[in-house]
Amino acid sequence: AMRLQAPHFHALFTPGLRSVAELFEKKKYELRIAGGAVRDLLSGMTPQDVDFATTATPEEMKEMFTSAGVRLINNKGEKHGTITARLHEQNFEITTLRIDIVTDGRHAEVEFTTDWEKDAERRDLTVNSMFLGLDGTLYDFFNGYEDLKNKKIRFVGKPSARIQEDYLRILRYFRFYGRIAEKPGDHESSTLQAIKDNAKGLAGISGERIWVELKKILLGNHVSHLVQLLYELDVAQYIGLPVNGSLEELDRVSKNIEDLCPKPMTVLTSLFKVKDDVTNLDLRLKISKEEKNLGFFLLKHRDELTKATGPEPLKPYQDFIMDSREANTISKVLELLKYQGEEQLLKEMQQWTLPTFPVSGHDLRKMGITCGKEIGSALQQLREEWKKSGYHMDKEELLSCLKKA
Questions:
Q1: Looking at the domain assignment, is residue 271 inside a domain?
Q2: Where is the tRNA nucleotidyltransferase/poly(A) polymerase RNA and SrmB- binding domain (predicted)?
Q3: Once rounded to an integer, what is the mean pLDDT over residues 104-133?
């Protein structure tokens, strides 16, 4: 059996975890790290969240923690077997081993077990089905470690059976492929066939759950390849993507934005051809207002708002921002520059500070202009001069323009 003895593993042993481990040991309940945290630890990463699995039932855990004076929080997960304990300012989420009795493709009715292999069997992918003892011993029933080393993404057992337990697993397959697989196209044909056969099941999954997974796919590797597969395997139509999405544009844009940390919507907009594509996506996935507005913005400006030839390539974008009356224009323009692959201009725009127009109506009144209408048109005229100067003219220079006039 393999034992992990790495610094990032030992770093998990905070005073809180040591106290939890002691309680379980005293009661002779087994406690292991489960799921994604094991995958991350074996990949040499420190996991952001650590979930634990145990042979103790929720009732046994509650009794143990309560008698030790440990605070329990958030009892929402209890019917699924999860207890959350708080020790030393840290939360520990611990779930009883379980078997799925009845599944409907969205939810499962579970029964508790003390069989680690049975619990591993109900997990989605081999790389997520491993356990790690607190002594570093790896418990791996489905060759997850082998798959992780070979950067292979496979379902535990039969792909169709796993997918039918929860159709969202189709998107989780793509998400983890984009995170772990080294190259595009390294799929088992039986897996792709199972996805195609079961794609329709995604129609019954809530838009919010789909959007969480889709966003992660869009920010992972092999985006163009994976989205193309969503179309080839008939998945796209059930998750709100346009029927005839622009895959060539997606391919081009996904190369543009490779290292530019785009928002998921920036990547996704490359598929869209008309405003209705954004509206339909929103109807299916309930995206945020900000995401929807970004989609509309990129769709409208991606072709006509482009850099200038000559010494000031950034000027059209700056002018656009200065003329805009909308909130968040700068952040939308930054996403547009990513979409267009303008890496250098993006850096410059990120360092640019929005200049403040130096002249006010008060300045004009001091010069003797008192009519409101005249003040308005003089300010407009000076704004134009200021714009032409690249926003460099100061108050004195601008006011002297008026004196000359």
A1: no
A2: 188-239
A3: 90
